[in-house]
User: Fold these one by one.
Assistant:
Number 1:
Amino acid sequence: MSAAQQGVRVEVRGVRKSFKGTEVLRGIDFSVDRGEIFALMGPSGSGKTVLLRQIIGLDRPDAGEVLVDGHPVHDGDARDRVRMAMVFQSAALLNSLTVAENVGLYLTEHRSQPPEAIGRVVSEKLRLVGLQGAENKLPAELSGGMKKRVAIARALVMEPQLILYDEPTSELDPLRSVTIGREILSLNRRLGVTSILVTHDRDLAMGVAHRVGFISEGALRFLGTPTELRASEDPQVRDFLNIDFDRNQHTEETA
Amino acid sequence: MFQSIGEVIVLAGRVLGALPRTWRQRRKVADQLFEIGNASLFMACLLSLFIGGVIALQTGPRLAERGISGLLGGLVGLSIAEELAPVMMSILIAGRIGSAMAAEIGSMRVYQEIDALRTMNIDPVHYLVLPRMVAITLGLPTLVIFSMIVGWGGGALVAVANRDIGITAADYFNNLRSSVEGFDVAKGFIKSVVFAVAVGLVSCHQGLQTSGGPRGIGRSVTKAVVNSIVLILMLDYALTRFLILFD
């Protein structure tokens, strides 16, 4: 299968979502092409993760719809038709299972391969994320970064056509963040997976994404390439991209 | 409240529909059964021993005063088989196992593990609820049978050791055998199966509905235990009324 064939096209159409009377998403529209890496950026609380949950079908929008390869993601058989995986911000590993059991869970539960073959796939995916030898560890024995890599390995086992990353580099040191960024790029190039990532990490988004969306207060304020984002005149986008901790300014303000 | 009742009924339907998948989840069922036995067997035996002993201690001397202490075996036997063993063991299991179920599933919900299962196209009801329901439905009635035997033994110990009662172990067990019929034991068994389903469903439902972090988990555990105990006592009355029809 060629790289371009494996990914899926995602269309987000007029998605709205409210919680207890507060509108968190105010009609979001965009699409992601097959095999594209799309990054969603924006300040904390702007609705990025909520949007990600609508895209993968964990929550249902109040209005609008999400189409994956032309079919609504909330259709009962959407997951039978398209393999979708998500790497959660907290990694969301099952704490009672070992690393190997976590990574092989999808295959074990769907009885898609005999146990020996599952073992081989698990070892291969753990090697891919640099965690060979960690098979028998429990999630509690892993650092935040290791958990995140196990979560990526668990997603890879599904051979996804669409993969969603929620803050993939949070809790990671800069070196490990770069490794994760390279892994996202490598997956995209090798398998043609459509990738949507939510991140605060400006370097990651600018470095790996083909296109970037900027969300603020539940609305999409910008959509374009990283180069176009850098040139954006939108004050919120400029503030988000250019803000840096200035020690001298901080000292003046507090004096 | 009505919404919760509806959700529990829907959950029961989904568990029933998933029953054919039990064999696939046999390892998890065995783990849960071990948990029930390991956590509760010793406590169940201790509790039952004292329940049997207390009934004998309170009623034995009064029966002896009226010259009918020979009926003690039947009295202890029936009380334990029909009422005390199923109710007390179910309350014990609600406290020890139901709370653990609500806490485990609740923390999996709060820490997005259930969301992760859903993204892998793994139904949380099949993966988490079904093995727990099967295990509690097998484990609690087994525990109740143990409880009956140990409770009868506790009554016998007190009856023989207490001079105010003054009967032999043979008198006690002869009366117990002649008074307690198979159907009396079956009544306790039937009650325990119904209580097990109730405790399992309420606890798993509370776990699945958990929200709001560690405090939410605590709230779910409390609700699971309190609602289970209230439900056990309500169902006990209804079942007793119903089963009397077959006496």
Note: Helices of chain B lie at 2-18, 26-65, 72-110, 113-119, 124-161, 169-179, 182-208, 213-244.
Number 2:
Amino acid sequence: MTCRVRALILWALLGIAVSASGQTADAKVRVDSAWARRAPMLAMGGAKTGSGTGAIYAAIVNAGSDPDALLAAASDAAMAVEIHETYQDSGMMKMRPVTKIEIPAGKTVEMKPGGYHIMLLNLTRDLKAGETVELTLVFQKAGRIPVTAQVK
Amino acid sequence: MGTVWNRRLAVLLPLFAFSLAAGAAETADLKSGVFKPPRPAPDFSLRGSDGAELTLSRYRGKVVALGFGYTSCPDVCPTTLFYLAQVREKLGAAAKGLQVVYVTVDPERDDTERLKKYLASFDPTFIGATGSPGQLAEVRKAYGIQISRQTVPGTQSAYLVHHSSFVYLIDRAGNIRALLPFGVSVDDIAHDVKALLSG
């Protein structure tokens, strides 16, 4: 299965999940202090499409009494957006994609350098300090939450 | 914290005698991991992102911060480079005595042009280095840097290069003096660079 097909299926499933749960009127989950690390779009072998990677960090606050989970992220600043985690193993800093980040009830999960981050693959533009990046975070229960990240 | 790092680094760096004892350095009192006694930094000859041959000896007389990473790394590498850029800002006029040298662990994707543009987004004085896979492996071996290139399921990234993330501080005489694990604060790095510049 190609990545594109997989991505479409993922989005279709998310659409169902989100519409089924319905976005509640009073937001129990919120996203605080989102920021992106400055990063340049890089040419790759003369290709026109963007290359270069970026990362977005934020604090996800679950003020509700039900657990929630971050399932996906989307942004037009990159060709692909994934949720990743940096971890230490065998003396190296390693990275892996994660399918979701659990946000327990009443807790804050902080994405920060050296830990969870939203990874931007193949940037479509430079991320310059002082600018902003728009993204959408998709939660299991809270649905889609639009976020503006400051580039630092 | 100190003992944890000490243990971790002792595992990492069997080649080096290493001590974190406070105030143990002969000349400079450093906040990061200290090499005792200082050990000559192995020299190398790679291709610099300025297009010229890049040797460590080219920077004798400056303090060198030597790190390893790659331009497709979204989290650890940019964080380290951003911190080093902030250190240079903090040093003010003394910043001219600090040279950041960044050696790629991903020569397949990182050519000199790409390294140059990437590093310039943090600080235009940073210099990148690449070479043949064999040359780069030699340099990593000399500095105890491990890498592991892996195709990871669940990401559209073609492959990831896991790598050791610490940065060496090399003094003006070309001796390895300190080792910065990932996450050491800008203030502490600036403190140590200053100490080495005045030592």
Note: The CA atoms of residues 75 and 135 of chain A lie 4 Å apart.
Number 3:
Amino acid sequence: MSQINDNLFGLHTQALGLWQKRAEVLSGNLANADTPDYLARDVDFRKALTQASGNQLPLSAPTAGQIDPNANAGEQLAYRVPTQPSMDGNTVDTQVEQAQFAGNTVHYQASLSFITAQIHMLRTAITEGQS
Amino acid sequence: MSSLFKIFDTAGSGMAAQSTRLNTVASNLANADTVSSTPEGAYRAKEPLFATLHDNALKAGAATQDDGTSGVQTLGVSESQADIQSRYEPGNPMADANGYVYGSNVNPIDELVNMISASRSYQNNVEVMNTAKQLMLKTLDVGK
């Protein structure tokens, strides 16, 4: 029974957390759209999700000062490659960030939908299709 | 603790910063035509200075870890160092002994551009906040 519970929602619970994290980072980029020398950042989603799903053997970081590969996604933020230079050193491209944020929102809702669908499926099974 | 609530803080700091900017634009435009009897007393255009406010700056405990969320803060308001224009207006009550008055160094075009930019950025932050709110409401409805 516990096995059903563990795999009930698949990757979507982890994905939800990552979409949320990414929404935070992107909102930070948008808030800093006019801050001089601010460098836009983003979450490397593929890497973060692979890590969260545990499908990868972890590397060890035995020495202090080495980059910890097991650090969470928030510490592995990547800097966005600027598409056009600006005089104040800011690399936020508002349109790009808006598009990414909108896409991120849809993905978040998709994960929510999958979770809801799973719950409905289980409920149907529990009530023998009565509700 | 990572939470969608943080987006409200981030977008809120952005809105506060942009409204400061709008405030300085309003002040500059209102004072575009003010005159003074001394160059020192003339109005100088003001502009806010923005800087990134990292989340860990708020928490003394987590000094080294940057968790990626970052708001905006206004470090201060600087005054334009552009030249003050003097005009010969002997009839002006504010004129000095030689008949000169000193106008502001506000550039109305700069200010209007600043206003449009600040307004758009403010709207961006509002949209971000709205979206975060919708996501949170949808999350509350999971399973229904």
Note: The radius of gyration of chain B is 22 Å.
